[in-house]
Design goal:
2 strands; 63 residues; two-stranded antiparallel sheet; S8pro/Inhibitor_I9; alpha+beta; Peptidase S8, subtilisin-related; globular; 2 helices
Length: 63
Amino acid sequence: MDKSSKPAAFDEHFNWYESSLKAVSESANMFYTCNLAIHGFAKRLSEKEAELLKRRPSVLSVI
């Protein structure tokens, strides 16, 4: 996730990640989140969900 793209409405990165996931997936359950060296989260996604997430401007990479 592009840390500089986090909307001010989200006090915590977790809430921003959760909102991003809910936009592409029925479940926003994450395995873990990262906020130190990198900013992001881990979650198993379907191919369609991964493709939708990749298209979000704040997403730097989907692996």
